[in-house]
Please model this.
Amino acid sequence: MPVISYIDAVTMAIREEMERDSQVFVLGEDVGKKGGVFKATHGLYDQFGEHRVIDTPLAESAIAGVGVGAAMYGMRPIAEMQFADFIMPAINQIISEAAKVRYRSNNDWSCPMVIRAPYGGGVHGALYHSQSVEAIFANQPGLKIVMPSTPYDVKGLLKAAIRDDDPVLFFEHKRAYRLIKGEVPADDYVLPIGKADVKRQGEDITVITYGLCVHFALQAAEKLASDGISAHVLDLRTVYPLDKEAIVEAASKTGKVLLITEDTKEGSIIGEVAAIIAENCLFDLDAPIMRLAGPDIPAMPYAPTMEKYFMVNPDKVEKAMRELAEY
Amino acid sequence: MPVISYIDAVTMAIREEMERDSQVFVLGEDVGKKGGVFKATHGLYDQFGEHRVIDTPLAESAIAGVGVGAAMYGMRPIAEMQFADFIMPAINQIISEAAKVRYRSNNDWSCPMVIRAPYGGGVHGALYHSQSVEAIFANQPGLKIVMPSTPYDVKGLLKAAIRDDDPVLFFEHKRAYRLIKGEVPADDYVLPIGKADVKRQGEDITVITYGLCVHFALQAAEKLASDGISAHVLDLRTVYPLDKEAIVEAASKTGKVLLITEDTKEGSIIGEVAAIIAENCLFDLDAPIMRLAGPDIPAMPYAPTMEKYFMVNPDKVEKAMRELAEY
Amino acid sequence: MVKNRHEDLGLSNEKVIEIYKTMLMARRIDERMWLLNRSGKIPFVISCQGQEAAQVGAAFALDNTKDYVLPYYRDVGVVLTFGMTAKDLMLSGFAKAEDPNSAGRQMPGHFGQRSNRIVTGSSPVTTQVPHAVGIALAGKMNQEDLVAFVTFGEGSSNQGDFHEGANFAGVHKLPVIFMCENNKYAISVPIEKQLACENVSDRAIGYGMPGVTVDGNDPLAVYQAVKEAADRGRRGEGPTLVETISYRLTPHSSDDDDRSYRAPSEVAEAKTQDPIITFGAYLKETGVMDDALEKELNDQVMAIVNEATDYAESAPYADAESALQYVYAEK
Amino acid sequence: MVKNRHEDLGLSNEKVIEIYKTMLMARRIDERMWLLNRSGKIPFVISCQGQEAAQVGAAFALDNTKDYVLPYYRDVGVVLTFGMTAKDLMLSGFAKAEDPNSAGRQMPGHFGQRSNRIVTGSSPVTTQVPHAVGIALAGKMNQEDLVAFVTFGEGSSNQGDFHEGANFAGVHKLPVIFMCENNKYAISVPIEKQLACENVSDRAIGYGMPGVTVDGNDPLAVYQAVKEAADRGRRGEGPTLVETISYRLTPHSSDDDDRSYRAPSEVAEAKTQDPIITFGAYLKETGVMDDALEKELNDQVMAIVNEATDYAESAPYADAESALQYVYAEK
Ligand SMILES: Cc1ncc(C[n+]2csc(CCOP(=O)(O)OP(=O)(O)O)c2C)c(N)n1
Ligand SMILES: Cc1ncc(C[n+]2csc(CCOP(=O)(O)OP(=O)(O)O)c2C)c(N)n1
Ligand SMILES: [Mg+2]
Ligand SMILES: [Mg+2]
Model:
């Protein structure tokens, strides 16, 4: 199986879906001729032309709203927000419109669209090119939020998102784009949206996380293994709606749970994960639920000292896992 | 002490602060001549004139953004969003700007503004005039979110919000506006933002909630009391950042916790409350943390059958409290 | 006798009677809604009164077999022309399960009916504007001969979504008709506190499209403007902004008391230009309608409204638990 | 000899030399940033190159003792005129603790300095537009004689916040100057894919304000337009939209490779209109500057830039834990 990068899996998934279905198209800022500021849509403009890979005016509410209109018509738009931080002007279109089209029309209309956006820090992106924005949307029935960790998952989940009959927010970790590589089948496959994935089986402690932090957890788990500590790692993959069954199962399995997010702590989606556990399998727990997250500051600063202080990293994860194991 | 309605407490707080400080002003849609669609700003236009009670064009991002500008200059704007549901177009100004002004400028600039909005259901408001929107913002350091339950709290907290040196979202339950009455001192007082309030002392079970549901819980607690069940009721009042100490104390006190919100369940702020408990006093619990909330549907429908089905009400609360007590 | 203007527009006598009857239907439905509201039978109504000429004149200029309409909450006249019935609207007013717009999930005035290409709408104003652009874009991509027609109030033209949508349509030369139904108020806020420009149509040049302002009390003037815009759109020449000037004859909605912000004399004055009356007069003056026909039309309309009301009133609500349906696609 | 145009504008020879020197300072700082970036010393730079004339010409038309500026990320020329120093900018480039804009919290180009009424800015484009309106409103309420000057790119003029802010200012006749620095690209997207109108200034009429388009390579033309706009504002006549036409001489930022979307020949052609060169030529042709003075100015500027670079490079970063400060007011 070819080994490709996380971002190449994005491009591959879009290309394959555009080849498969003429109703799939891409719109966003600089997605066309330039191929995206991260190159996620590289080559698509040449292959599919400017009418299916549309360089839009600089206006996110229109990007989302035009996408909603096209989706209601029956197309399958893939809208790119250049950075997740810049999804804010489009929130009205996403929450008031995309999320509610099917429900408010009693199933008469639907809105099968994907909104892709690079999120996450550790790239000197400062306050407005580093944020995790999922918690803003992770309370809006009608939406699905997918945040893959590996190139394999990226391809399978993005294809599933494009074929999904409802709006999907697809957040890609920008530091994973080129850092994370993995085996990706050249042929067509989809992965189920709404299902978490056990990335590592273990017996002593359970780590539940998503996105780039999955890799930090897996790295730390390797180190712990050599000390005889066995960590179970659950990758949420879809952060809304959450896979409650998988969460309860993973938590119950070891009775010691560490939840990790790169987002700021209070109000992040791992709070909901904790609530699900506390509601459903409290008596299976042998330790308080532990959370590792960014500090509660507006967003990560630019200066390397402060950025590093903010970011979750393999050392912080390892430390937290050891602490939990020793509890 | 005079007994006044929840909405009159809003008006009173604004009036007193405008009299006290010439830098306080009001802006929003229909807040002037009409006195607001709910009459929350009734009489202020006549008293303070059109330049301090500004009927703005119909554009929420401008209402928030102009408010941010005025606040950075040094004024204390009180911006009204006509319904909380219509705050969505202003989210970029609130999250990217208001919340981050102080932080991003390293304390050089600040943004002392209040954004008021009526939220909540049970008024035949349907999908877009009933929503609870706090969870969207309850993950943004730099913001404070206040949601009072009684006229007394309304006045004290709104005055505190207006004097606060940082942006405060002040959500008022629209069904409470005329339904809830209570004693309110005619003189000046403020209540601390960030502090929860024990609305009822009890020994057997703890209910943690906010807004209109506080009254449902208090009513149910009365009924349970006659059956010998003693309920402790904590009113969060500030839902972001949460008063962790008070939550842990209230949960530990009885070991049985019911969390209630009118919002849809997954991703609502009571998830974070559960996480705080599971993190800090898990071993004090004698029952799984229980949550009562709206169903996970986009928003409450208009037809009375479905609206009633959605809304938390005293019966549902009582049933949940009994269930927990019997656990 | 007054000049016959409809023939010049290619409108037969039958057509203009149809236009009149549709305007009348919109008015009578709306009036009924108010009665039902004031007698406590329905919780809410938001009116088309005073804008029927603009709505029906415009909708008749479109092709209701293939164009898409994205109406705003007052557009009873538009949706009637596109195939929604009095019964449908009454079912919506009563929030009953059979309501095709939303099965009673949404307030009245939140139109949507896929079979008639009436695109589902929400309450936050102006969000439908980019949707219309997206539909026109999709139509163009699929080489369909369609026009997307979207309406909004003059207050709502101040939302960012108007600007962003109009610019997108302008850049991509899409067949969209943006129609601003300027009724001089946005709830209580008068036009001079909403807009600094003379006409909303002054904004068109900023998006590289023509902008016209027409008398919204005259369905023929509106018909003509929208027809030209539709023709332009179909020829691939891009979008048009049409502004219709009329006056909101009722309070903003059943929750509003307009006496707190405008003088009754102002409303009374505007009522002299009531399009139902003035267009009726035109039809009589041009000999298209006489008193007998007027009465007959009115009787027909009232019979339909009565029947629709009775039907809707006794129709069942959706089951409580049905509230759980259709959050996502169901297999 | 070329016509002396600055005297007619009331600008002394000293003033135009100051303008030139400030433009040159902006350019040299920017060039240095690129060098530092390419040598791996700073992670990011976003340029003013090609827009110095517009920025400095405009800022000189304001009163830097009382007006407020809300610059966008390219506005090195504006902030220099309003009192920010080369050292301040270098400290920001290196993200050091002493950076007055943000103590290294924000990327370079995110200006803010309260003591000079340079209002703190963010990355999402165009949010500063309503802020300027709010500041002008506050100034008016406090009967202060101030003008709020806000800039943005032509791509950014498509955001809803431009529309909403401009309309608010128009309705309330506020002293705001909206200046669009049209450099023909928004990252890779050329102007014809951004805008359907001829000029961004065509949008002014939609907000009831005058709109003018001027040569952004000519600081005197920009000075004149902004001066008139400021005078209008101070007279209580409301806002103005000024559009300056220039060309972005560098890639969008240090992360961009512009060869993927525009021809090197196009850039080369634009460089013939480089305002540093053309305005320098004007000063020589009008006898205000000779080769010796040019060299002297350049030497002065370079010395300052060198010193600033050295200082900033060796200055300390903020402590890691200081990241926790100033989320809320601290007592
Ligand atoms: C985003 C948003 N803000 C506020 C409202 C509340 N609201 C409903 S209608 C209305 C006034 C609309 O005025 P206009 O656009 O002129 O239309 P009209 O009602 O006059 O036809 C307002 C403020 C809303 N529905 N959506
Ligand atoms: C809301 C938002 N969307 C996207 C971006 C990413 N972005 C930064 S600059 C830019 C292009 C701006 O173009 P223009 O307004 O013409 O200004 P210029 O850079 O050409 O001076 C884009 C898309 C952003 N900063 N903010
Ligand atoms: Mg109106
Ligand atoms: Mg540009």
